[in-house]
Amino acid sequence: MTEPVLNADAAEIAKFSALAHKWWDKDSEFKPLHDINPLRLDFIEQHATLSASRVVDVGCGGGILSEGLAQRGAQVTGIDLAEKSLKIAKLHLIETGQPNVEYRHVAVEALAEEAPESFDIVTCLEMLEHVPSPASVVAACARLARPGGWVFFSTLNRNAKSYLLAVLGAEYVLGMLPRGTHEYARFLKPSELSRMARTAGLDTQALTGLHYNPVSRGYTLGGDTDVNYLMACRKPE
């Protein structure tokens, strides 16, 4: 029997593994994720109830979103393919004593085969732009959601403005992210992501932009989706 092809980029895994020890340093390269985490959680709660829900956090990294979801009452399974990041996530659980999170080293496609329709909510944030086949991830996320469940994505739009702000601005001018964090060709237009979701059997319910103000150094949700955006999808009953 042929082994399934792993939908992962070894260079991307190595990139995040090298930074793994900085996941919970709020002044490190992961500062933007810490800063936007409350907004991401609020967006999810605008559509779905986290309290007592079973949630899988796809591409959980060091667990920033996973722990935030658990703090709002969810029972969370965080999955990732970067083992060093998962070790940091597990160590941080020991520090915080958060009992409602477990972490697994497993691909989303493999978990979808193992546990289809097992989760009330699926989150896949800031991850699609780092994999060879985002459509495969979207399809697996759809399989993991129960009928009536919610699936949330966030990624970067692909246009001149996003290249200017998210790559040149964030990585080379402001130094908010390490150079080489993002590969522009892997950015996804909302229409492309929505089409992937529709093909996977999901209905797109909401789309919103995520914006950074370099003067206030703060983030807000709403408005255009030219650069960063979040998408809420629902699996039909």
Radius of gyration: 17 Å
CATH topology: Rossmann fold
Biggest sheet descriptor: 8 strands, mixed
For this structure, what is the CATH class? Alpha Beta
* Termini Cα gap: 35 Å
Task: Estimate the strand proportion.
Answer: 15-25%
Number of domains: 1
Count of individual helical segments: 8
Going by CATH, the homologous superfamily would be Vaccinia Virus protein VP39
Per DSSP E runs of 2 or more residues, the count of β-strands stands at: 8
Global morphology:
globular
Low-pLDDT runs of 5+ residues are: none
The appropriate CATH architecture is: 3-Layer(aba) Sandwich
Percent range of helical residues: 25-40%
Q: Indicate the structural class.
A: alpha/beta
Q: Name the quaternary structure.
A: single chain
Please provide a brief summary of the model.
With 237 residues, the chain is an alpha/beta fold.
Structure description:
The protein is an alpha/beta fold. The chain has a single domain, classed as Rossmann fold. It has an eight-stranded mixed beta sheet with strand order 3-2-1-4-5-8-6-7. Strand 1, helix 3 and strand 2 form a beta-alpha-beta unit. Helix 5 runs parallel beside helix 6. The longest helix has 17 residues. It is globular and about 40 Å long.
Short key terms for the protein model shown above:
8 strands; single chain; alpha/beta
Helices and strands, with pairings:
Elements: H1 10-18, H2 31-47, E1 54-58, H3 64-71, E2 75-80, H4 83-96, E3 101-105, H5 108-114, E4 119-125, H6 134-144, E5 145-156, H7 160-173, H8 190-199, E6 203-213, E7 218-221, E8 228-234
Parallel strand pairs: 1-2, 1-4, 2-3, 4-5
Antiparallel strand pairs: 5-8, 6-7, 6-8
Helix pairs in contact: 2-3, 5-6, 6-8
